[in-house]
Amino acid sequence: MVARLIDEDPEGAYGYSKVALRLASRVAAVREAAGFAAYANQKYSEALGEFRAARRMTGSADLWPVMADCERGLGRPEKALDMAGAPEVNKLDKAGQVEMRLVVAGARRDMDQLDAAIVTLQSPELASSSVQPWTARLRYAYADALLAAGREAEAREWFGKAIEADRDGSTDASDRLAELDGVAFVDAFVEDESDGEQADDETETETETETDVEAEVDTEVAVEADTEVEAPAEVPVEDEVRVEDDVEDVVGDDDVEDGKN
User: Fold this and answer.
1) Helix, strand, or coil here: 16?
2) How does 155-175 read in b/e, with b if 16+ C-beta sit within 10 Å?
3) Between the CA of residue 113 and those of 40, 61, 76, 198, 255, what are the distances in Å?
4) Which residue ranges are recorded for the region named Disordered (predicted)?
5) Alpha-carbon distance 140 to 19, whole Å?
6) Dihedral angle, C-alpha 50, 55, 58, 60, nearest 10 °
7) Which fold has domain 2-180?
């Protein structure tokens, strides 16, 4: 569980390591796992103690570079440099020696010795065209040291070489190179959210407009209904006769005769 969680959930890995220590503190693999869990959580003093315990149990020098890096984490870069000159370094395999070189270069940088850090990283492993598990990290460290020393053009070149060797994405060399080239990354998800909000606003506006139009139409229909002229009621027959008699009285018989002519 420590190995499974240590990259994505260092705190969870640390919790499992403490349980393992209570159950089997005399097992070297448990002490080593506990050391790496503490190291991932920047508990350098605790990690160093676990690594020393594991080394005593196994007699192996494999943990020597990470022990030296713990000294760096504790603010003792000089101690890390002393460890780089110890006989244990000669017992390391190629990967361990490269790791030790990286630790020494970091210690030099901790002491503001940038030129010494650059020289420390200049090695046959750095110049080799073959890609090994440590190649990307070695090239990245060299590029970063060059950039810290103000050698930007060379740093850009070596960040590019680190990208070529970084097959599993163990470094952020591509991001560093993009920063040097002035490339800015935009969060597309934020833009999509903005577009969605804008589209929602437009939809709401259209809905409001349609509602207003419908309201106006309803109002016009209501007005027309209120102002409709009512048809005149039918006039009774008696009233019609009375009207005719009144007209004859007003017009007179002579006028009627003239009208007939």
Assistant:
1) helix
2) bbebbebbbebbeeeebebee
3) 26, 27, 15, 54, 135
4) 191-261
5) 36
6) 140
7) 1.25.40
Cα 102–chain centre separation:
29
Q: For 220, list phi and psi in degrees, rounded to 5.
A: -60, -45
The beta-strand segments (E) located in the chain are none
How is the chain split into domains, by residue range? 2-180, 188-260
Q: Say if residues 99 and 65 touch (Cβ distance below 8 Å).
A: yes
Q: pTM value? A: 0.69
